[in-house]
Amino acid sequence: MAIRMAIRYRKELLEMESQKIKELKEDILNSLYHILGQHNKCAAYFCKRKNNEENRVLEAEKSGLMTEMLMLPITCASSLKVS
Fold first, then answer.
1. pLDDT band at 82, cuts 50/70/90?
2. Of 23-27, 37-41, 69-73, 76-80, where does mean pLDDT reach its minimum?
3. DSSP 8-state code for residue 20
């Protein structure tokens, strides 16, 4: 759902296509961090931070799960080409 929201938002912006793609790529790559509670790279439109939310990124990194989970958004973002 978050990635669909990012696509919809970026598509409506009055920016050059290459800039839209660059920013969408950043949103996609950041989506997992957002889901796990780390919001320092979230775009303002994308994220309504919760003060009591636990950041589970370090836990996911230590277990090796982060590497596995990052493969999907990286694969999706890599397919976005700037022409």
1. low
2. 76-80
3. H
Domain range for 47? 2-78
Predicted TM-score of the model (pTM) = 0.74
CA distances from 45 to 27, 61, 82 (A): 11, 27, 23
Residue 83 counted as domain residue: no
Note the residue count of the chain: 83
Q: Give the C-alpha separation, 5 to 82, whole Å.
A: 20
Looking at the structure of the chain, the number of domains it has is 1
Q: What angle do CA 57, 64, 62 make, to 5 degrees?
A: 55
